[in-house]
Structure formats: C-alpha cells, structure tokens
C-alpha cells in the first residue's frame, strides 16, 4: 500500500504535467513558446532521474525511512512554492527542481523496497504498486482541471499539495525493506561497468526515455488543436493514464510467467509503434482516444517491468544502487525529450506528425538495445528471460 501511494503522488503527478503545460500556455506563461515551458517538466524529470544513483546508494546503506520523510517535507514545500509562483524562473525552481528532488526521495526507496521483499513474483508486486502512478495520472488531471476552474491556480495547487503530502506521509510509515547483509562496494564497481547485460539495458532505457514522456507532455495541446475543446483535451490525458493502470499490472503479472525481458522488449516496441502508426494518423477525436489508450498501456508496461529486469541481473546488496544508476543515466535523455519535441513543434498537424515520429523511433531503437540485453543473458530467442 505504501509503495502504491508513493507512486500515486510522484509518478502520478509527473504523468499529469501536461495539465500544467496546457494551463501555462494560456495563462501565466502564455507569452512563451511550448518548447520553453516544457523545460519545467523536463527539469522535473531530470532531477527525479539523476538523483537515482545517489538515493539508491543511501537506500542500500540506511533503508527507506529518512529518505522518504525528507521527500515528504520537500514535496509540501515545492507545491506551496509553486502555488505562489508567477514568473518562469520561479516555476523552474519550485516545480522543476524542488519537486523533482522530492519525488525522487519518495519514489526510489518505494520501488527498491518492493524488490527486497519479493523474488518469484517481483514483477507482479512492482506492477501492482506502479499502477498507483497511472491511477494518479488519471486523478490529477481531472481534479486539477476542476480546481483550476473553481478556485484558481494558486489554491488548486495548494489543495492538491496538502492532500498529496498526507498520502506521502502514510507511504513513509508503511514502506520497509529487508536489510542487506553485504558490505557496500564502489558506486560504479566492476560488476556494473563490466556487466554487458546491464549496459545494454541502460542504453535501451536511455533511448526509450528520450521518447517516452513526449505524448504525456503534448497530448493535451494536440487534442485541443484538432478539437478546439479544452475539456475533452484534459480527458484524453486521463484516458492515457487509465490505459497505464492495466498496462502496469497485467504485463508485470505475465512477465513473472514468461520472462521479464520477454515482456519488456515487445512493450517498448509496441509503444513506439503506437506513436508511428496511431498518433501520426490521429486526426479525429476517436483515433486520439485509441492512441491514448494503446500508448498508455504499453508505456505503462515499460515503467513497471524495467525495475524487475534490473533486479533479475543484480545482487540484492547492490539492487538500490543499480536501479539508481540506471535512472541517473536516463535523466539526460528525459531532460531533452520534451524540449526537442517542442522545438520540432510548429502549430500545425505536420509538426505534430514529426513529434510522433521522433518519439516512436526512439522507443523502437530502445527496444532493440533491450533485446540485445536479453540475448546477452540467453542467446536463445524464445528462452524464458
């Protein structure tokens, strides 16, 4: 339950950044282009991912409690600061940097703690907890849009922040981990540097991260562009995250039966294919709904299965460190994906078409590198890995 709540408040709200992006483009930051505004969400992702290596290291040494209680305090501080922000640099500092740090302190101990308690059904356990991020991704856009209209931006953010802080507090006192019995080695020891499987998995994850979050950032503005209806546009982001609820649980359950890498590779590939085949031709609202559901499902599967894949090729005493190193590596492409898409974007359908292609191609390339990691474990293509 604790990890579910942590995912709900952290990744769930990150998945809803498109709600803020759309609001800023028509309110506080309406004088700025989407590419510039997207740096807020991209910096949020960067700090969240980049701190993974350091947080994972502390987790391996001391466990989750002090990390998560610090994250809860920063979570409240960042949302309060965001609610008072009016200038671009203020949003960068409060919602980009501070919020990204706070959710990292909450997320990594939660995900690593699950992996210390489960072995056989690790992916299923992670998938159930990770479903919290999709539930949050459904709830936050709808609630925020309602609160924006009823109370205005500042009080909407405060109400959400205070409510979410309470849930983070519950997560902090309910998440626990099994202690490691092995002395910690260097952060980047030879076990990581020389592990071909981990290197291929990391390379694939970097390409996936470059394209993964682009639809979550821009699907609201795209839907608003083709329909002219802002209310329906926010609903599309909620539908995308709703697809991720099943996408985080079902593939994770299946991966324990048929192999975690065997699920991760096709899910990353099909997420990319959804962008190339569905998003590029989504010129009507029904097709946008189809794309949102499909992409939410397959991208959600990637989020829930990637950590069990790391656990599968890692020793227990280095698990937190390895998960953290992986996320630190993907922080850089996560930082660049949204702004690159914004730079590509000119407000016509052809530009969104190229954004979809950019996102999809990176996901496809990432899936091929992850396939190489699978083959490095067992060269038999259909072996259970």
TrEMBL record:
Task: Could you list this entry's UniProt keywords, alphabetically sorted.
Answer: Membrane, Transmembrane, Transmembrane helix
Is Membrane among the key words of this record? yes
Could you tell me which residue ranges the Major facilitator superfamily (MFS) profile domain spans? 1-378
One Pfam family named in its UniProt record: MFS_1
Q: Carries keyword Hydrolase?
A: no
Spell out the molecular function terms from Gene Ontology: transmembrane transporter activity
What Gene3D superfamilies would the database entry show? Answer: MFS general substrate transporter like domains
Subcellular location(s) of the protein: Membrane
Q: Which InterPro entries match?
A: MFS, MFS_dom, MFS_trans_sf, Proton-linked_MCT
| PROSITE patterns assigned | MFS
According to the record, the segments passing through the membrane are 40-59, 66-85, 91-111, 123-143, 155-178, 198-220, 232-254, 261-282, 288-311, 323-346, 352-377
A single GO CC term for this protein reads:
membrane
Q: What is its main location?
A: membrane
The membrane topology of this protein is: Multi-pass membrane protein
- Family assignment? Belongs to the major facilitator superfamily. Monocarboxylate porter (TC 2.A.1.13) family.
Q: Report the PANTHER family cross-referenced here.
A: MONOCARBOXYLATE TRANSPORTER, RIBOFLAVIN TRANSPORTER MCH5
Report what the protein is called.
Major facilitator superfamily (MFS) profile domain-containing protein
């Amino acid at each position: 339950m604790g990890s579910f709540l942590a995912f709900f408040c952290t990744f769930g709200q990150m998945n809803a950044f498109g709600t803020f992006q759309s609001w800023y483009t028509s309110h506080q930051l309406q004088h700025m282009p989407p590419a510039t505004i997207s740096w807020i969400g991209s910096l949020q992702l960067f700090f969240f991912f980049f701190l993974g290596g350091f947080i994972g290291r502390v987790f391996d040494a001391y466990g989750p409690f002090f990390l998560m209680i610090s994250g809860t305090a920063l979570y409240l501080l960042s949302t309060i600061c965001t609610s008072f922000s009016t200038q671009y640099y203020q949003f960068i500092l409060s919602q980009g940097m501070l919020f990204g740090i706070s959710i990292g302190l909450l997320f990594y101990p939660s995900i690593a703690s699950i992996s210390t308690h489960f072995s056989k059904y690790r992916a299923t356990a992670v998938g159930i907890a990770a479903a919290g991020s999709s539930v949050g991704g459904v709830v936050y856009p709808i609630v925020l849009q309602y609160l924006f209209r009823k109370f205005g931006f500042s009080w909407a953010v405060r109400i959400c922040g205070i409510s979410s802080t309470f849930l983070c507090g519950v997560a902090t006192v309910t998440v626990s981990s099994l202690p490691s019995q092995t002395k910690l080695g260097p952060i980047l020891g030879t076990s990581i540097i020389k592990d071909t499987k981990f290197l291929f998995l990391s390379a694939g994850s970097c390409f996936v991260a470059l394209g993964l979050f682009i639809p979550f950032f821009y699907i609201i503005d795209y839907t608003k562009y083709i329909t002219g209806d802002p209310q329906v546009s926010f609903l599309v982001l909620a539908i995308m995250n709703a697809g991720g609820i099943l996408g985080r649980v079902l593939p994770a359950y299946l991966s324990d039966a048929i192999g975690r890498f065997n699920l991760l590779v096709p899910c990353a590939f099909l997420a990319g294919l959804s962008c190339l085949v569905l998003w590029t031709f989504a010129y009507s609202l029904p097709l946008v709904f189809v794309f949102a559901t499909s992409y939410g499902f397959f991208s959600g599967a990637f989020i829930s299965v990637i950590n069990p894949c790391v656990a599968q090729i890692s020793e227990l005493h280095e698990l937190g460190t390895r998960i953290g190193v992986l996320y630190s590596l993907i922080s850089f492409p996560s930082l660049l994906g949204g702004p690159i898409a914004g730079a590509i974007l000119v407000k016509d359908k052809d530009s969104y078409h190229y954004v979809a292609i950019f996102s999809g191609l990176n996901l496809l390339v990432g899936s091929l590198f992850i396939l190489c990691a699978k083959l490095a474990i067992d060269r038999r293509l259909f072996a259970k890995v």
